[in-house]
Amino acid sequence: RGEQLSHVLPDGSEVKLNAASAISYQPYWWRFKRELSFEGEAFFKVKKGIAFKVISKIGTTEVLGTSFNVSTRNKGYSVLCSTGRVKVTENINGKEVIIEPDMMAILNTEGLQVEKEVDEALLLGWMLGKFNFNAQALLYVFEELERQYDIVIVTDRKKAIKLSYTGFFKRTNEPELSLDLICRSFGLNFVKQGDNTYKVSQN
After folding, report:
1. Any idea what DSSP says for residue 74?
2. pLDDT, tens digit, for every residue of 55-84?
3. Which DSSP string corresponds to 122-141?
4. What residues contact residue 201 under an 8 Å CB cut-off, 6+ apart?
């Protein structure tokens, strides 16, 4: 929480991890099996070679050499292909799709779907410290703030999940500024409680 990290895998492939994200793998077996476990959000830039697999709880992404973004946020799973071709598989029933640049595979309660001509710059804005939301549940926006700033937001979760937010914030903002921009849209206010806890409530 509160930081983004870059990591180079044994074959030179690169991973940029968004806040509150994790990967794990076996470095000694990497030359024989390029396979890692992952949850959170990250951008992968894969060197060409044997099959490369990113395995999460509900989905698996497999490539040979390409770059792509994976997100397992909000109980969903999405993969954006930036270069090359990417195969995405639903772990439960084995359904799979192959996507190409500017396409995104989405796995949720409605199954595995593909969106074409997505806005890559918008979706990868997190790598530049920009976070854009389009009709996103306010609760999920607050959860992103918590991850990016390593803070705790106390609020009525049942109400926050019903409210929809469209807008953006920059990671370079102070937490109070981002909270103020978001809360103002809903007539909410917030009070700081302790070093990293904020209580959000109705005016």
Report:
1. G
2. 999 999 999 889 999 999 988 899 999 999
3. HHTGGGGTEEEEEEEEHHHH
4. 155, 156, 188, 189, 190, 191
R_g of the chain computed on alpha carbons: 18
The angle subtended at Cα 87 by Cα 85 and Cα 89, nearest 5°, is 165
Q: What angle do CA 103, 3, 158 make, to 5 degrees?
A: 70
CB 71 within 8 Å of CB 46: no
pTM passes above 0.90: no
Q: Is 95 in contact with 81 (CB distance < 8 Å)?
A: no
Q: Which residues pair with 39 in a beta bridge?
A: 22
At 142-151, the pLDDT tens digits run 999 999 999 9
3-state DSSP assignment of residue 143: helix
Per-state percent for the chain, helix, strand, coil, to nearest 5: 20, 45, 35
198: number of Cβ within 10 Å: 22
Is 168 within 8 Å of 130 (Cβ atoms)? yes
Provide the CB-side half-sphere exposure for 182 (13 A, CA).
34
